[in-house]
Amino acid sequence: MTTLDHCRACLAPDPHLFLPLGDHPPANMFVRPEELGEAQPAFPLNTQVCLKCGLIQVADQIPADFFRHYLYIPSAAASMHSHFEGLAAALSERAGDGLIVDIGCNDGLLLMACNALGCATLGVDPAANIAEMARDRGVDVHLAYFGPETAQDLLQSRGQAKVIVTTNTFNHIGDLHDFMKGVDVLLADDGTFVLELPWAKDLLDRNEFDTVYQEHLSEFSLLSLVKLGGFFDMQVTDVTRLWVHGGSMRVFMRRRSQKDVPTSIVRQMLDEELAAGMLDVATYDRFTDRVGTVREDLLAMLGDLKAKGLKIAGYGAPAKGNTLLNYFKIGPEHLDFLADRNPLKQDLYSPGMKIPVRSTDAISAEKPDILLVLAWNFFDEIKEQQSDFLARGGKFLVPLPEPVLVG
Question: What is the CA radius of gyration of the chain?
Answer without folding.
Answer: 21
